[in-house]
Amino acid sequence: MQSDVKELEEVRRHLVKANKPSDYILRVINTIKNRYLINFLSSHNVIPKYGFPVDVVELQILHHSDEAKRLELDRDLRIALSEYAPSSQIVAGGKLWTSRYLKKLPQREWPKYSYAVCKHCQLYQRGPEGSEEPLKNCKGCGQPLEGRNQGPFLKPEFGFIASTKRPAEPGEGQPEKTYTTRTYYSGESDRRDELTVNLKNNVTLRAVPASHGKMAVINHAGYQGFKICHKYGYTILGNEKVTPHKTPFEIDCSGKLQRYYLGHEYMTDILQLHFEGYANPDNGFGFLFFTLYSKVYV
């Protein structure tokens, strides 16, 4: 958290020197400094997440129907990035609700970053939006950061708001989702003792357990992103046509829409599995598997 604030203050000083002061950065710093302590400790793996309601966001429904009053739609942000992302649909209370807004709070701002995933080693890296040090080369393998798996994202940590239009009746098909999120590893972790196992064909398995592994979840909506109004959070998919829109309180909004992905970072225990001496027939590189939530995915 201190490193994020320090980087943002550096960006703000740079803008002030360029005679381009930004209240937005002050609001982001205020958002970071005012996060609940228990959320910070849990998300950074200092205390266990189970039993603590942290990183939980709500799909708020402002409709006045009886069905809406009984609903409490809370999700862990890692899941909500897909289930509650704008234009996604969810069945609750016998009705089909559509998410339409990213929730905003007074004097607070969504944290925004620039990220890139190396297409050679799949390492995730990011910096604050507007940083003087752009993401050019991978900090893991040194290769240029190229390809479409990069761009700006924001963290919708205040939650989501459903469309104010009357909900529809559920049909026989599955509710619409704005694509499945994907999890990436940043390479940051506290490594412990490692285990080496010799396999067949001169392949060596090196297992490295680690704690405080930094993970990132990104919803890029099929690389089309989301068009987001920064005044009141109205959001549509990147391929949807921009039309006049309203606030969650049915008031005409003049805010402009900007394209972003949605993302979230958290800490967890991981296990890195390095298969050394194995040649991938597709690109010649070795590969790396890691665990999420203490389970091995192979």
Keywords, separated by commas or semicolons:
298 residues; alpha+beta; twelve-stranded mixed β-sheet; five-stranded mixed β-sheet; 19 strands; 15% helix; globular
Write the layout of secondary structure elements.
Layout: H1 2-17, H2 23-33, H3 37-43, E1 56-60, H4 66-69, E2 74-76, H5 77-83, E3 89-92, E4 95-102, E5 112-117, E6 124-128, E7 150-154, E8 160-162, E9 182-185, E10 190-191, E11 195-198, E12 204-219, E13 226-229, E14 235-237, E15 245-246, E16 252-253, E17 257-276, E18 288-292, E19 295-296
Parallel strand pairs: 1-8, 7-17
Antiparallel strand pairs: 1-2, 3-4, 4-8, 5-6, 5-7, 9-12, 10-12, 11-12, 12-17, 13-14, 13-17, 15-16, 17-18, 18-19
Helix pairs in contact: 1-2
Write a structural description.
There is one protein chain. This protein is of the alpha+beta class and 298 residues long. 15% of the residues lie in helices and 35% in strands. It has one domain. The strands form 3 sheets. Strands 5, 6, 7, 9, 10, 11, 12, 13, 14, 17, 18 and 19 form a 12-stranded mixed sheet that branches. Strand 5 and strand 6 form a beta hairpin. Helix 1 runs antiparallel to helix 2. The longest helix is centred in the first third of the chain and has 16 residues.
Shape type: globular
User: Count the strands?
Assistant: 19
What's the number of helices? 5
Largest pleated sheet: 12 strands, mixed
Secondary-structure element series: HHHEHEHEEEEEEEEEEEEEEEEE
Report the sheet-strand fraction: 25-35%
Mean pLDDT figure: 79
Span of the ends, CA to CA: 32 Å
Radius of gyration: 21 Å
Please give the domain count: 1
The structural class is: alpha+beta
